[in-house]
Amino acid sequence: MTTLQNDFASFQLPDASETAQIIAWLRNAGLDSLEVTAGERSFKIVLSPVAAPEPVAAQISEATLNHDDAIAVKSPYFGVLSLLRPMQDVPLAPVGSAVTAGDTVALLSIGPMQISITAPCAGTVAEILARDGDLTGYGTTILTLTPTHD
Question: Is residue 51 included in any domain, yes or no?
Answer without folding.
Answer: no
